[in-house]
Automatic annotation (TrEMBL):
InterPro entries: C2_dom, Copine. It comes from the Eukaryota. Pfam families: C2 (PF00168). The lineage of its organism: Eukaryota, Metazoa, Ecdysozoa, Arthropoda, Hexapoda. One of its GO terms (biological process) is cellular response to calcium ion. One of its GO terms (molecular function) is calcium-dependent phospholipid binding. Residues 1-84 form the C2 domain. GO terms for cellular component: plasma membrane. This is C2 domain-containing protein.
Length: 84
């Protein structure tokens, strides 16, 4: 079989652009992976929203099986969530 280990990835951002006019941004990170041989990205998880923070350290971690012989593509997108 393929050798694998479980890894835990912490997500933090620094110096995000402030997209809100009257307060700081409320960032959230969405994590995607692309399965081997696939062209499409699959959403794995969304972090919590961190209020009024341009340097967020997200509590939610990415936990995945790391396969040593395989390229595993990950994509991280950070959004400013406007609370209504």
């Amino acid at each position: 079989g393929v050798a694998k280990s479980t890894v835990e990835i912490s997500i933090a951002c620094r110096n995000l652009a402030d997209k809100d006019l009257l307060s700081k941004s409320d960032p959230m990170c969405v994590v995607f992976n692309r399965p081997p041989g696939s062209r499409s990205w699959v959403q794995m998880l969304r972090t919590e929203i961190v209020k009024d923070d341009l340097n967020p350290e997200f509590v939610t971690k990415v936990v995945l099986d790391y396969r040593f012989e395989q390229v595993q593509a990950l994509r991280f997108e950070v959004y400013d969530v406007d609370s209504a």
